[in-house]
Fold each of these.
Amino acid sequence: MVLLYKYDLQNNLNNQKKLDDLQQLVNSDLKNVNIIIKDKIKNKINHIPKVAGHLVKAGGKRIRPMLCLACAQLCDYKGVKHLNLAASIEFIHTATLLHDDVIDESKKRRGLRTANNIWGNKSSVLVGDFLLSKSFELMTEVKNIEVLQILSETSSIIIEGEMSQMLSNRNITTTEDDYLDIIKSKTAQLFATASKICSYLTKVPSQYKNALNSFGMNLGMAFQLIDDLLDYKAIEKDLGKKVGDDFKEGKITLPIILALRRSDYIEKKFWKKTVQDGQINPGDFEKACSILKKREILYDIQKRAKHYSAIAKDALGIFQHSKEKKILLNIIDFIVDRNF
Amino acid sequence: MVLLYKYDLQNNLNNQKKLDDLQQLVNSDLKNVNIIIKDKIKNKINHIPKVAGHLVKAGGKRIRPMLCLACAQLCDYKGVKHLNLAASIEFIHTATLLHDDVIDESKKRRGLRTANNIWGNKSSVLVGDFLLSKSFELMTEVKNIEVLQILSETSSIIIEGEMSQMLSNRNITTTEDDYLDIIKSKTAQLFATASKICSYLTKVPSQYKNALNSFGMNLGMAFQLIDDLLDYKAIEKDLGKKVGDDFKEGKITLPIILALRRSDYIEKKFWKKTVQDGQINPGDFEKACSILKKREILYDIQKRAKHYSAIAKDALGIFQHSKEKKILLNIIDFIVDRNF
């Protein structure tokens, strides 16, 4: 037991190092991105930077802008436009989170009260709109039509994904394929765009752009699979949000979809009562977790995630060996092995 | 009394003709804009065109895209990009309406139930986001960086205006200047952009672009002044929304601001109770209207609107005489004299 604990601890430390390496690689760029972000949310209406800054400051891993910056380095990009693009991508992501929290009526994110919980839905709707508009201003400043087309289409696709997810809520006929479509739109697409967008500022041949798209898309799939798994597993202080939120909100993620398929008659009735009808009693979440464990669902979801991470790794195969490539390959493992 | 009625009727008919003339001028273009709009909101997720189409179909006057198309003609623009820009402007406007109705908790718009009232806030938030993203796709397709910069900045400014308006809600210290700033951002800016944007697709000298900006900005100011006045005056079937909504929601528009300044001690107490504290009893709206009448506030607001409409007219002075110019000059009067 003590050995196992030590093993886990070492594993976590190794995993953290992979994220640290990425942070170190893009550190000076990321500082500049943060300056751009702060500058863009400055406003004569104090309420805007207050609400926007709440979520921006709360931190998160900044994984999307870091991917954007690291892939720019991988393509040997030498200008400064990648800074705007990384900020723009973070704005799209943050706008989505603000509106998501309104839609899900969430009270906590990254361990802090959500903006909608503090200032009300109205502020979150408008500040989300504000950030979305600012993301377009930032990308327009880059003055590259192809880049603009990719980013504006990405933004539409994300919203389609959010809509599909909303419509699948409490719908227990949602299939694994439906789920994979949803997470591809709402999450993987932005990872793909973050990874490839700066290559369009360089002269790298199209197969490299495609490779970065595939890398990001598959990494994003793995990311969301693990994210949804962690909602049935993580320790609150790590994930920031409360474990079990998806269960309580009736969000149909892969753990539920697989459970519905693998459960016996009595368990199926349990899922219908809790997930479909929203009748949740004390102890039901623990019961849900124990079914997931019994049916080996969390383990199998990790295997599903590894399928995508394997594709993401091979996608980078056409790039020459470099420090950047090594760090990006490691970040794939970090995504799958993380506990937060 | 009968004579007065006949006079009003004739006045309304004359006014309607001004709008009809504009519609006729841009008719064939507007049909193409509608095709683009329908095409862009088509989606594999049926719920999106259903919600978006509800508001789009409900109609409204389409004043912004018509201004865009008419001003393109005034500048002798010969291409097809103005169609995308007109659709993009209508999308920005519609997205704003969807989110506005969530923020104001409105139940009716243009005589129909609001989208948030039928399908809930979540749908309205997401479909608003969807339309905003599609508006960026549409403008990106035009492939003109200057046009993109103007439109993306406009979108940010509108949201700032919405935010200021939200923050001024029930705040009776809001001044007339505050109010003018708010309507400039939330309404006039989009009128200005709609009016000038197509000139950037042509070779007209910059003073003509500036003139169109001034025309649109001042027309937009007049439009919103009248809109806010009509909330204390219009007949429900004309305006579509219920008269008195602003009063009930505690929205601080010019009628309230002037009333607060011109009222005696007892009336001031009435405004504080109703607008600031939101304690509204049956008959209070009628009482509010009677104070506005006694203090000649509605008449003076129309004078304020005429101030802006005069500037809008003079702004067009540098354009040569043409059918288009005449129709645009008439539409200024329509905006100020309308009852809906």
Note: The domain at 17-330 of chain B is CATH 1.10.600.10 (Farnesyl Diphosphate Synthase).
Amino acid sequence: MASNRKMLVLGGDGIGPEVVKEVLRVVDWMAKKRSVSFDLQEGLVGGAAYDKHGTPLTDETLADAVDSDAVLFGAVGGTQYDDLPFEVKPERGLLRLRKEMDLFANLRPAMVFDAMADASSLKRDLVSGLDIMILRELTGGVYFGQPRGIDDLPDGTKKGYDTQVYTTPEIERIGRVAFDLARKRDGRVTSVEKANVMMSGVLWREVMTNLHKAEGEGVVLDHMYADNCAMQLVRNPKQFDVIVTDNLFGDILSDCAAMLTGSLGMLPSASLGAVDEVTGKRHALYEPVHGSAPDIAGKGIANPIAEMLSFAMALRYSFDMGEEADMLEQAIQNVLKSGLRTADIMQDGMARVSTTVMTDSLLKELDK
Amino acid sequence: MASNRKMLVLGGDGIGPEVVKEVLRVVDWMAKKRSVSFDLQEGLVGGAAYDKHGTPLTDETLADAVDSDAVLFGAVGGTQYDDLPFEVKPERGLLRLRKEMDLFANLRPAMVFDAMADASSLKRDLVSGLDIMILRELTGGVYFGQPRGIDDLPDGTKKGYDTQVYTTPEIERIGRVAFDLARKRDGRVTSVEKANVMMSGVLWREVMTNLHKAEGEGVVLDHMYADNCAMQLVRNPKQFDVIVTDNLFGDILSDCAAMLTGSLGMLPSASLGAVDEVTGKRHALYEPVHGSAPDIAGKGIANPIAEMLSFAMALRYSFDMGEEADMLEQAIQNVLKSGLRTADIMQDGMARVSTTVMTDSLLKELDK
Ligand SMILES: CC(C)[C@H](C(=O)O)[C@@H](O)C(=O)O
Ligand SMILES: CC(C)[C@H](C(=O)O)[C@@H](O)C(=O)O
């Protein structure tokens, strides 16, 4: 069956390939049971690409990614790569994809599944029903700013440096995404920086404030310092709706938020580019929030749900298949309700299952 | 009574002056009951200094601070100063003190008081008995790195930028403090950076590793990425002993850790300079972790305990008065055990008291 749904599958390292494989079973199911087919391609990234090609991302794979409608990404990294030079570390593959595909908007929902409210380290009433969206700028800031390097100083010591930098257009485009997201949610955006210390933060706050005046109809905008935001996430996460912040703060705050849901093995993310004015398409990459988890790789016990939900985001944001996304998300809720758990989310009284058995049950749910 | 215990008292803004005032009652008590006197001086900082002098820190006050054995600091900031130009914002007063006094080592204990284990948003068993030390580098990194600024670009937009920079000696000196602290505690140091993304992080990890080989006897050193550290703090804070990290990560992670103790209004901090090889003295500033809390300022309900414990740290680190420090800390424990609580830490079944009544009881405890 012909299709223009081009999806590049990059399993990567550790449990990445294991959980991606499970999603491909759902893709198969969609083709067989709903006559929706995808044009799939597979590739290597991270340590796996390094092992084969000496680089964590080949130019060919990058070209395939740019050419696709969506990249389904697993995870990268592993202890065996810890001593590789900086420029060929597994992470560079992911960072290069983000940068070259211009995936500036990273959507990280932090939500608590009904079945999982007790799994949080926070008290139940603080997190049950939690549903916040962390929007992280993904292609700017200290991750890519120039100059950066390690210089030898005359006295024999060294200096390591990085540049944190944001321009007005970079801040505006992520701000617009934040406002758009908020309008479909609770209408509140908290913009997070360190404007009391950093000049990039001063500009960030100024641009967000102006953008809000010009284009923020229907949205309430607040500002918060990053250190306070970390506190507030721990104190009372439900106070937030959409949090928008820069690349580095977003890295830390979204991980903090993800962990406090207690549902880390179940959280997806989407990294989106700008919508092309001609084709109406946008570059996109979908990946679970959890990493490569080398300690449990190869054991068949990884939780495939975060990768499944990442695929659901792809259905929604890249393939205009909201109905199938809903269906998949509902099936996941049902499987959880039925008491099945992978090891990472195991609770008293539940049934512990392997990666594949989790997917088996999910497919059965979809069949219903 | 003559004394060379020179202490500069800078109450600052919001609840700062209120809690500092309570400590001065303990200082009085020490003079009367233990014949230990301090050579006290008071000054303005932050918004209070700006209101009077047009600057958040005058050169005279800075000179007094440099000349003192310890600065007892309250807090700075308030909404009425939000629109001041960056260079005269209240925070600049504090940042200038840190930089000019070269207070590179910021000790932020995150501990849970027995009486307070239920006040945490984390489940009780995850935090009860928690006692970790976050050591934050305080005079380097993106807080002070050059160049920094906001430039107008040719196309009419702007660029805001900051420089994150660390040198070998800067990393080594904070690493030494971490190892020293760990030796008096559980012997474990976790060094935190983003060596997978930042060049300053690559150097940080390299220098810590080398320093550990050369001078780390009796200490186990681990490395962790900052995003993972935020997660691990939420997941299981008791896994840590000493965390050492840079200025920006330290700002966020120490606030996160402070909040999860549930004892925010009770946490002190010490900011220390290098020990002078001739005099054996070091510059030092002591301040509570909580800020100026403008919303409760002037109401007489602020919790004075964090400032009291900051003074206890001053007794221990600057005045070699470990016995008095123990005494004060014990008195605080006893007052809490007796059921007194200020509003911020109020719990069912306890007695809610004002700032001054809390101190009254403390003085009575000291009298025993
Ligand atoms: C793997 C690493 C480079 C990456 C990052 O720091 O962005 C990861 O932590 C993430 O959040 O996706
Ligand atoms: C007030 C502010 C400049 C300061 C900082 O960012 O260092 C504060 O958050 C702190 O942690 O002491």
Note: The first helix of chain B runs from residue 16 to 34.
